Amino acid sequence: QVQLVESGGGLVQAGGSLRLSCRDPWRTFSQYAMGWFRQAPGKEREFVSSISWSAGRTTYSDPAKGRFTISRDTAKNTMYLQMNNLRPEATAVYYCAGAIRSWHTDVPSTRNFETWGHGTQVTVSS
Fold it and tell me: How far apart are CA 69 and CA 101, in angstroms?
């Protein structure tokens, strides 16, 4: 069941930046946290970053550390992913997701998230 709406993807040259947004326009989702995943062609969907909705606690995958920044605006029910110094290997479809319960691992998996968006394409050219 898709409830979230992503935007902000596009084509950028290596070294460039993009800012992704994700919102719950119907305000039907009461979340513990929201996160970003990505899926490159022929690969499994992988975790990028997450943020707890109340405390704003953030988690990043190793490739995202130092390059990506996740944030949220609780008043707008919107989450963001600022991606800087992008590399071609960041090319993928990026999905936002929402979780209603916390997880007990350092890094969450797709199984921890109940709601998803359709995804937005990010292409980084070399």
Answer: 22
Lowest mean pLDDT among 1-10, 14-23, 112-121: 1-10
User: Do the bridges between strand 68-73 and strand 58-60 make them parallel or antiparallel, or are there none, so unpaired?
Assistant: unpaired
**What is the structure's pLDDT at 27?**
65
DSSP-derived pairing of the beta strands 120-125 and 92-99: antiparallel
Determine which helix (DSSP H) or strand (DSSP E) holds 45, and give its type and residue range.
none
- Pairwise CA distance, residues 58 & 99, whole Å: 14
Quote the pLDDT of residue 1.
60
Residue 3: per-residue pLDDT: 80
Measured distance CA(98)–CA(32) in Å, rounded: 8
Number of neighbouring beta carbons within 10 Å of residue 114: 14
**Cβ(76)–Cβ(104) under 8 Å?**
no
